[in-house]
Amino acid sequence: MNVDGKKYRTIWLAEDGGSVEIIDQTRFPHTFETIRLHTMEDAAHAIRFMQVRGAPLIGATAAYGVALAMRTDASDDNLHAACSSLLETRPTAVNLQWALDKARRTLVRLAPEIREEAAFKLANDICDEDIAINMAIGMHGMELIAAISRLKRAGEPVNILTHCNAGWLATVDWGTATAPIYMSHDGGIPVHVWVDETRPRNQGAFLTAWELGQHGVPHTVIVDNAGGHLMQHGEVDIVITGTDRTTATGDVCNKIGTYLKALAAKDNSVPFYVALPSPTIDFSLSDGIRQIPIEERGGEEVSRITGRTSTGEIETVDIVADGSPVGNPAFDVTPARLVTGLITERGVLEANRKAIADAFPERVRASA
């Protein structure tokens, strides 16, 4: 996607051919900075401290982390140690494990002297595959938006509500939930996006709003609890979110607060869709509420907030009463019964075991 007219991916091989560059997402929305990853430890730090975030981008970064590890030591011991260290960084996003399993399976069969080159090629391939998948998701999702648009008066926008960031900043390019939005906008379909702020890290206000603005997509930032009110008054035509892990039965794990949006959508007959690349489907799980591990992040994310002052300075301030304990579950699970459909690279699927298995039979066989 474009940033001030320049084409960017969220992660790419640096010009030196031996390090990796990323966009530092902890600096948004007030600063655009890129940083360079030289070691596996740099990649692990970037994932753990959310300099990169979003399940597909986490997976891509992990793959590059393995490649950086192979650059310094291509032994079996270091391969397994690197995969183990990277796996510990974020427990919820299944793309992380998917990318590491793929790297381990590919590299362990190769002689150590050719592992570095193979690891970097694999990471590049994972990035290219992610872009192709997201483009396909965009095309299938655009058909849903176009169908709604045909029912509206000429020029009236389709109002789409999002939660968290499932944009190109969460992937290598295009995004999952935003790909249909960008393609609809570029294709001349009028759209307007309600952007949930997404407390506590404000990925909607900081990231989604920023990238939509860069692309020229009309949008409005709203507080997380405004979505139900807008649905009650007919101001939301469709909800599209992303996901960090989806079970074989269609339960969806996404940023905390997604479940409440799905409940409000169900109560107001607003279609609730989840855009997901197939690597996000965990075919080993059937019950999302009981089986998906929910990351509990530090309370300071809730009790403190960073912003720009009237003098232009970036400051972090406390916003919670002194002495009050803070809980911070980072994700929740939306049961399949509340999901209208799953927008995948192979089409829009019903959120149930049969539909998912029929669309991705090779993934089912691999998980058996």
TrEMBL record:
Site positions (Transition state stabilizer): C164
GO BP of this protein: L-methionine salvage from methylthioadenosine
Chain sites annotated for binding substrate: R53, G54, A55, R90, Q203, N254, K255
Lineage of the species this protein comes from: Bacteria, Pseudomonadati, Pseudomonadota, Alphaproteobacteria, Hyphomicrobiales
Entry superkingdom: Bacteria
Protein name as catalogued: Methylthioribose-1-phosphate isomerase
Pfam families cross-referenced by the UniProt entry: IF-2B (PF01008)
Organism: Roseibium aggregatum
Free-text function comment from the UniProt entry: Catalyzes the interconversion of methylthioribose-1-phosphate (MTR-1-P) into methylthioribulose-1-phosphate (MTRu-1-P). Also catalyzes the interconversion of 5-deoxyribose 1-phosphate and 5-deoxyribulose 1-phosphate. Part of a bifunctional DHAP-shunt salvage pathway for SAM by-products.
Catalytic activity, EC: 5.3.1.23
Family that this chain belongs to: Belongs to the EIF-2B alpha/beta/delta subunits family. MtnA subfamily.
Keyword match Mitochondrion: no
InterPro entries registered for this protein in UniProt: IF-2B-related, IF-M1Pi, IF_2B-like_C, Initiation_fac_2B_a/b/d, M1Pi_N, NagB/RpiA_transferase-like
Molecular function terms from GO: S-methyl-5-thioribose-1-phosphate isomerase activity
Catalytic activity, reaction form: 5-(methylsulfanyl)-alpha-D-ribose 1-phosphate = 5-(methylsulfanyl)-D-ribulose 1-phosphate; 5-deoxy-alpha-D-ribose 1-phosphate = 5-deoxy-D-ribulose 1-phosphate
